[in-house]
Design brief:
Keywords: Aminotransferase, Transferase. The chain is of the alpha/beta class and 383 residues long. 39% of the residues lie in helices and 15% in strands. The structure holds 4'-deoxy-4'-aminopyridoxal-5'-phosphate.
């Protein structure tokens, strides 16, 4: 029974073949650190790192390669923003759909005296923008938002949030875990102060790597949250204030950087618009297939234009974990069940603590994969 991988929202698979090739090239033929040596292989590694920053700038319509900080992952990027920007007594605004990559750092900061409010969301997971206006306080220092929910797939109107934040003079950080590589995304047009992305989901790179794009004025004000050696300014025991060294202590994930740079070249050759068109075609097929199926409740919007390829199903009267288990063992359909590290989102959508079965698609997902999933869902719910 061939496996049908529909857990792309957790991590994308397969990767373009060039990713493994580039990582192998680094590990077998380059091997040198960056910022620490001037010999040829070190310069080659430096060049690939710069190319990666340049590609991130192109992809996200961002002008400052030095401010495209490479992180050990999206969770780290979000921690750098939350931990670096908020002090006891400060106030932060998040949505009622956040992932624990935001909520856990925020709850930890709350124990130190940071306060926060959640923007309420409707039953599909969309923000109540009018309510956001009323949440700002004189001490509000940051707004953090998941661009698309990893539970409902709903894509928020980030441009509207950006305009509201600008009117209040409050920095806006977007968690684009589920949209980067899936939707065209402009740092400039969304009015962002920070954009955090993982390498390993829609951006097709390896795990253990991400990027945090920082607007220059925000980067200046942001305290470094993790500090250490940078290979630069080695006469000082203080973290350099210049970018990107301020936020990049320690030896970076160079095999990952090589792999991600190759992944982004592959992605840019396809173009995000074409990836979005593919996502939309698959979404229409999946949504049409589950519409009106007895015993199946689809979370999130029915309109494919307002979502990404993340589909949570709640099987009425069934144990969702058992459904996911049977999808795998009897049909080879690989999904993810449970709360998806986002208890807040499930509370908003009314599926806490029961959870859902999540099907998620990517560039390498085919119509046949969707049809196989739909046939399995139909067979299981007809029992
Ligand atoms: N935010 C959202 C919306 C996510 O979906 C995820 C990954 N599931 C994260 C943050 C955390 O990303 P990572 O695990 O790659 O650090």
């Amino acid at each position: 029974m061939p496996a049908v991988y529909l857990d792309q929202a957790a991590t994308s698979f397969p990767k373009p073949p060039c990713v493994a090739a580039a990582m192998t090239e680094y590990l077998t033929h380059v091997g040198a650190n960056v910022n620490r040596g001037v010999y040829g292989s070190a310069q080659q590694a430096e060049l690939v790192t710069l190319l990666l920053r340049q590609r991130l700038c192109e992809l996200f319509d961002f002008d400052h390669p030095t401010h495209a900080v490479l992180t050990p992952g999206n969770t780290w990027g979000l921690n750098l923003v939350l931990g670096g920007a908020l002090r006891p007594g400060d106030h932060c605004i998040v949505s009622a759909m956040e992932h624990n990559a935001v909520m856990r750092p925020l709850q930890r900061l709350a124990k130190q005296g940071v306060r926060f409010d959640r923007i309420p969301c409707d039953g599909a997971g969309f923000l109540d923008l009018a309510a956001l206006e009323g949440l700002f306080r004189p001490n509000t220092k940051l707004v953090v938002l998941a661009h698309a929910s990893n539970v409902s797939g709903a894509v928020q109107d980030a441009a509207a949030v950006g305009r509201i934040c600008a009117a209040h003079g409050v920095p806006f950080c977007l968690d684009a875990a589920q949209t980067a590589g899936h939707l065209p995304l402009s740092f400039r047009e969304l009015g962002l102060s920070a954009l955090s992305v993982p390498a390993h989901k829609g951006l097709m790179g390896p795990q253990g790597l991400g990027a945090l794009l920082l607007a220059p004025d925000f980067a200046k004000a942001l305290a470094p949250y993790v500090t250490g050696g940078t290979g630069s300014a080695s006469d000082s025991e203080d973290q350099p204030a210049y970018m990107p060294d301020k936020f990049e202590p320690g030896t970076p994930n160079l095999p990952g950087i090589y792999g991600w740079e190759a992944a982004l070249e592959f992605l840019q050759n396809i173009g995000v618009e074409q990836i979005r068109a593919h996502d939309l075609a698959l979404s229409r097929r999946f949504l049409a297939g589950v519409a009106g199926l007895p015993g199946v409740r689809l979370l999130g919007p029915a309109d494919p234009q307002r979502r990404v390829g993340v589909f949570s199903l709640d099987f009425a009267g069934r144990d969702n974990a058992e459904m996911a288990y049977r999808l795998e063992t009897e049909y080879g359909i690989l999904t993810r069940c449970g709360l998806h590290c986002a208890p807040a989102a499930h509370k908003t959508l009314g599926t806490f603590p029961r959870g859902t079965v999540r099907f998620s698609t990517g560039w390498f997902t085919t119509e046949r994969d969707i049809d196989a999933a739909l046939a399995a869902i139909r067979a299981l719910t007809a029992e």
